[in-house]
Write a structure and sequence with these properties.
- This protein is α/β, with parallel strands linked by helices.
- About 35% of the residues lie in helices and about 15% in strands.
- The protein has two domains: about 130 residues, 3-Layer(aba) Sandwich (Rossmann fold), CATH 3.40.50; about 150 residues, 3-Layer(aba) Sandwich (Rossmann fold).
- The chain has a five-stranded parallel β-sheet, with helices on one face. A four-stranded parallel β-sheet has the order 2-1-3-4, sandwiched between helices.
- Strand 8, helix 8 and strand 9 form a beta-alpha-beta unit.
- Bound molecules: phosphoric acid mono(formamide)ester.
Length: about 300
Amino acid sequence: MKSNSLVSISDYGKEEILEILDLAAKFEANPNQKILDGKIVATLFFEPSTRTRLSFETAANRLGARIIGFSDAATSSSSKGETLNDTIKIVSNYADVIVMRHFIEGAARYASEITQTPIVNAGDGANQHPSQTLLDLYSIRKTQGRLDNLNIYMVGDLKYGRTVHSLIHAMYHFNPTFHFIAPDELKMPEEYKQFCRQHNIKYTESTELEGHFDDADILYMTRVQRERFQDLMEYERVKDVYCLRNSMLDNTKPNLRILHPLPRVNEIDMDVDSNEKAYYFQQAQNGLYVRQAILTKVLGLNL
Ligand code: CP
């Protein structure tokens, strides 16, 4: 079934991405617009979340919609063995749009194929997180004044970090140069490097963080994703591999901005928070405006 879903960032072309960013800018200028009055937004979170769920719910509230759903699948009938198929079919009868996070890669795509109610993927395993990518793009454009020709360093858990996977696919439109910094155990998966090669996107790989990002426009830090490890001993080996400190930013470009999808554990020292190049809290705030734009678009509305 075809619907207006946002499951992967690749569902949107360049024009649609820019349309969302422009719409988000209008919501930032005026966040309280009751254009979703009478609509029901379902938020189904089979995995924990702070920013994604609360910013989608705030977005829906500010636009006049009502919210149903769950933040803990243990309180839903999936804990009694109900299938995702049945849950989606039932909730589709209640809601105009379903925002869902699930631990299984491909769960959102599967959901989008069994209902005509738009599905917004709020993260599926280590696969994709397209609403995060759109807010990352918004944050990059806002801080750099452009999206084209940027030097983007991605640091940390590049294997399981779904936000960096989605960001690679989105930046393909804007001629980036990527620098992947990760320990061998958490390297960028081959499929994403192959995507870069196929599309003539330049990239480098390294295991060293310190002193290696003096030409960076964006330093995109990520958390080591404990919940994705089968072997917790392996997590223990890599969990503290990088920590960004203020002193490491001394010789960086003035326009450098540090992004992080959050939550942070210990990969950015708190002494970085007061550095004007730290942008992760504003980035999370931008998520509200971008998610207002996403809800508006998938519901086929406009300002
Ligand atoms: N960035 C992000 O997805 O944060 P949450 O897990 O808190 O939603």
